[in-house]
Amino acid sequence: MRKVIDPGKERRSINVVENICFSHVKDMKGNPVDLYMTLMLQNGNSEMRLADGADDEVSTGVQPVLVWINGSGWKKCDRMLMSAEMEFLAEAGYAMAFIDYRTSDIASFPAQIIDVKTAVRFLRAHASEYQIDPNRIGTIGRSAGGHLSTWMAMNTDDFESEEWAGYSSKVQVAVDMFGPTDIPVCTEKNYKAFQDPNYRWHKISETHEGVLLGVTDDMTKEEVLELGRKASPINYITDQMSSIIILHGDQDPLVPIEISEKLYAKICEAGLGDRADLYILKNGGHGTREFFQNLTKQTIVEFVDKCLK
């Protein structure tokens, strides 16, 4: 069979630029740690350039960029783990920056948010090199990454390092997917669960948030809760906050939905309701398939488009 088809050129090429070092930091023991990012973006036909020295794609100009922040309880996780599910944003015209950050096993909070802010400043410092728009930057993350993405939305002046000084770490939009943005709620949930001898953890220092906060076994419950309050973006809402879309499943067994409900309510109480949307995903669990269906992706793109396009 021989056929002639005319597919056209509507869809643009998507390329990946690997292992971009954006930060040199240290762990809690003083050992050096290099942090990397991977860019997924529409920057022409890279294979054709290599093979033929030419490119059949006319530049569309600089692109807005979204910084992807992994979850996994702030623990070690390959930065590209969710890249396939996030390609829809690259297809929608966003450069995607998948970043490392110091995980809780090697550094306590606020190292994680420091690293995300450094990544944003790096992107602004190298905007022309990667054909991205320094004035249109946002963040997106799931679970622990949602917590950090929401921190970025607050646009506070806290937790700034000296790397890439002179560039802003402020963002214009954030996507929070079921993030534990009010850590004490999770802490109280774990304290209650310790009554079950079969529970995965037996003391607060073993929990995800306990490791993140550097909790020790001699701390009182109130001391642990106070550490959690200081690390919770829900307590830092001001008029500097960017636009934010919050998505949470109504059947989430790990991060209670009340956290996102409370976050949205506090944003509205601060008079910033016009900057925030809360979407409850019917039958959604903790990062289950409901979060990666076409309707959910379309909802995210439409919200981000309003802020960055």
Explain the overall architecture.
This protein is α/β, with parallel strands linked by helices. The chain contains 10 helices and 8 strands. It has an 8-stranded mixed sheet with strand order 1-2-4-3-5-6-7-8, with helices on both faces. Helix 6 runs antiparallel to helix 8. The chain is globular, with a radius of gyration of 20 Å. It starts with 14 loop residues before the first strand and ends with a helix. The model has no long low-confidence stretch (mean pLDDT 94).
Widest sheet, order of strands: 1-2-4-3-5-6-7-8
Total DSSP helices: 10
Uncertain regions: pLDDT < 50 for 5+ in a row?
none
Q: Output mean pLDDT.
A: 94
Outline, from the CA principal axes? globular
Radius of gyration: 20 Å
In total, the number of strands is 8
Oligomer state equals single chain
What class, by secondary structure content? alpha/beta
The portion of residues assigned to helices is 25-40%
